[in-house]
Each structure stands twice: as C-alpha cells, then as structure tokens.
Amino acid sequence: MTYPSSEMLRDYSLELTPGDTRLIDAAIERLRPRTVVSLTWIPGSNPMDMIVPAARLRHAGFLVIPHIGARHLRSRAELQQLAERLVGEAGVERVLIIGGDRATPAGPFGGSLDVMRTGIFQRVGIRRMAVAGFPEGNPHIPGMVLDEALAAKVNFSHREGLQLSILTQFCFSSESIIAWLRRLREKGIEVPVRIGLAGPANLITLLRYAVRCGIGNSMHVLSENPSFAKALVDRGPEPIIYDIAQSFEGQNLGIAGLHFYLFGGLSRTLDWIAAVKSRKPAFV
User: Fold this and answer.
1) pLDDT for 168-181, tens place per residue?
2) What is the CATH number of domain 4-277?
3) What is the three-class DSSP state of 66?
C-alpha cells in the first residue's frame, strides 16, 4: 500500500548553495539522477559563481534551476552574460526568476516579470521558467499586489508560449498552503506548483529561518502549538505533507512535487526522506 506522505515524496527537489563545495559534492554523491536542484543567488555574491557548480551538477545528470534575482541584477548586460553562460557553459534549460529581497534595485529590474519581458532567456533557448509563490504572503508586499503580479506572469507566459511553474516559499502551516493552492485554482491559475517545505531541523533553526523570511502564520504555529512544534522537530515536515495529501486526495490540483530547503543539512533531509518512503507514516 502507498501512503500519502511517501506518494508525495516521489518527485522532490532541493535547494543548494552554489558556493558550498562540500554541499555540491555531497549532492552529486547522494542524489538520484534527474533530481531537480535549485541554486540560490546569495545577495551580494557574484551571479557568475553559479556557472561552475551548475555545470558540475548538470554533468552529473541533475536538472539544475539557477535562481535569478531580478532586483540584484546590475544591468541588462549582466543578465545577458549570465543567461549566455548558464546555457553555453552549464547546459541549463530552466531558471527560477525571483524578485529578490532588496529594498532598492541594483539595476533596471524591479521584479521577475521585468526580466521575463526582456526576452533574453527566451533567445538563448530557455523557455521553462519558475516564479515564486507565497502561501503566507510577503511581509514587504501587499497581498493584492502579489496576486496581480502572479497573474501578470501567468498571462505573459501564456502569450509567449513559456512553460511556467511556481515554487513556493516554505511555511509550517498546512492550512495556509491548502487555502492558497485552492484560491490559486479558483482564480483559473493552473500552472504546476512545487510546494516549499523546510527539511528536518531543530526548533531554534526553524524559528530563525521563519523570522528571517517573515512567515507570520508559521511563527504562530510553532510558538502557540508546542505539540505540533515537537512533532515537526521529531518527524520533520511529514505532518504538513500528510495534511496536504489528505486534503487533496482524489483531486488533481497540479502539485508538481515538494521542494526542500535544507535548514538542517542535506544528509538529514535525505535520510528523513528515505525513512518516510520506507514506512507507514505516524500521522494516520
């Protein structure tokens, strides 16, 4: 018998830091071929630093998705060079275009749609693009603005014939994820969604990242529900996954898979995934 949590773990993706050589080495050693791996763009770093690790991961047989931080790009020329090198030197076929957590843009791009509209990635052969989704909103952007921006990206991708998907920010509230995804589909936005979750980590680490990323509802979940917080630490995100799977049982809401942020490390997350896939989950 296949249980909901293990079924949802069939096609997962992971986020890696391009400057962490040990992490890249470990990922190449442990991940199965064709696993989707995203490469973060650390604010203040040189985006060209993604080229070598992207090429290594691509050569090792993984599907690599570099992050393109629109508000961190200093010029159209920098974007052009980055796109050409990602394709020409690393064989990249898809990108995640995000706004970037920066109050003032470093260059001419105020958001991800501005980057998409340049056509630069399209001209180098990249037509598979992902954008960010925020089940709990963004503390710096009003909800209505987020909704309008997402709809604009979806409409643009339809007009241009792009293969668009959504990768969400992590959160610990399954209710927020479920409600957000239902609302998305009710609005007629049918693009595939990867649901972002925090990999197993201790409570202090989870709280620290929740504060850094401004996910308010999740902070309340952890601080006001000690039993759930303990379950999250003891069992990883399995209770969240189980709730999502149960809520959408028998429905096709376009969940492309789960995406893990490695707050507790790669090995801990992969060991947890293997354990969940091999047994009946506790939340039945």
Assistant:
1) 998 888 888 999 99
2) 3.20.20.220
3) strand
